[in-house]
Amino acid sequence: MSEPRRILLVVHPARPEVHDHALGVVRRLTAAGITVAVIGDETRGTPLEGAPEVVRSDPDDPTAGCELVVILGGDGSILRAAELVRGSGVPLLGVNFGHVGFLAEVERDDLDDTVERIVSRNYTVEDRTTLEVTAMRDGETVFESWALNEVTVEKASRERMIELTVEIDGRPLSTWGCDGVVMATPTGSTAYAFSAGGPVVWPDVAALLLVPISAHALFARPLVVGPDSRLAVELVPGTVGTGVVWCDGRRAVDLPPGARIQVQRSADPVRLARFTASPFTDRLVEKFDLSVHGWRGAARRAAEAERRTD
């Protein structure tokens, strides 16, 4: 007898157009013998609240017994789900109901195929690097967290810059008067780091990024460092501006001058379910709507194939 199957369904709570789709997904998965769990507080006032097909997840361990977490929403919903699965090893499958949806694997129009693939377990799993962050003041830890996309240290006031000293692998690199600095994973290279002028890094590249934000300095270029590099940022003591550290734009703590923020690769990756092994180039073209007009690759391949058959 096969073991019972269970998934956790995470739905954007503030988008009514998602709820009807979610109910359809629940009914199809339930009909296939898969138990669908939801987070009770997030379904209040939606069609899922009273649906007899769903069960409520354990508030203390919502992914318990789950083989997959399915997210209907945008990148924000996927980052929220990543918090739920932290340390569990349960993969995430995002269905994009947002805008760009860079973390999502499929679009809303692919829901039927998505359900079929979940039922047949027709997907692979890919590990994505995450970051762990520690903020300290006078040798005492004041904040510990993690991030899938990025850790940012930013000025707390619009009117003032902050002065930061950047350190890599225990050695000082430079001091910048700036709006902040982004420390990102390859996954996060297309998020805040991209907006700040950083490079796009393919997900399979083992690296970390450091990108200054509006730095007033001669040497203030984005940096790509090794995956085991240890990054640190110190708010220069005696300066007027105070800062704030953000993790994925979701978790934050204020930083006084003299605070030190340490960032390094975490031992706990986030696992993403994948349906296809299509090149990352294709995802960039699709998500950023890039023009590839004039590309002759397909014509060349066709001509080569024709020559081989002659």
Give a brief description.
The protein is an alpha+beta fold and about 300 residues long. Helix content is about 20%, strand content about 35%.
Number of domains: 2
The CATH topology name of the largest domain reads: Tumour Suppressor Smad4
Return the CATH class of the largest domain: Mainly Beta
Helix content: 10-25%
Number of strands: 20
What would you give as the CATH superfamily of the largest domain?
Answer: Probable inorganic polyphosphate/atp-NAD kinase, domain 2
Terminal CA distance reads 55 Å
Q: Which class best fits the helix and strand makeup?
A: alpha+beta
Shape: globular
- State mean pLDDT (0 to 100 scale): 90
Radius of gyration from CA coordinates: 22 Å
- Would you list the SSEs in sequence order as H and E? EHEEEHEEHEEEEEEEHEEEEEEEHH
Largest sheet entry? 6 strands, parallel
Please, could you describe this protein's structure?
By secondary structure, the protein is an alpha+beta fold. The chain has two domains: 5-128, Rossmann fold, CATH 3.40.50.10330; 131-265, Sandwich (Tumour Suppressor Smad4), CATH 2.60.200.30. It is built from six helices and 20 strands. It has helices at 16-31, 75-85, 111-120, 192-195, 280-287, 297-309; strands at 5-11, 34-38, 54-56, 68-73, 92-96, 106-107, 124-128, 131-137, 140-147, 150-155, 162-168, 171-178, 180-184, 208-213, 223-225, 231-235, 243-247, 251-255, 260-265, 270-274. It has a six-stranded parallel beta sheet with strand order 3-2-1-4-5-6, with helices on both faces. A six-stranded antiparallel beta sheet has the order 9-8-19-16-11-12, with no helix packed on it. A six-stranded antiparallel beta sheet has the order 15-14-13-10-17-18, with no helix packed on it. Helix 1 links the parallel strand 1 (5-11) and strand 2 (34-38). Helix 1 (16-31) packs parallel to helix 3 (111-120). The longest helix is centred in the first third of the chain and has 16 residues, at 16-31. The chain is globular. The model has no long low-confidence stretch (mean pLDDT 90).
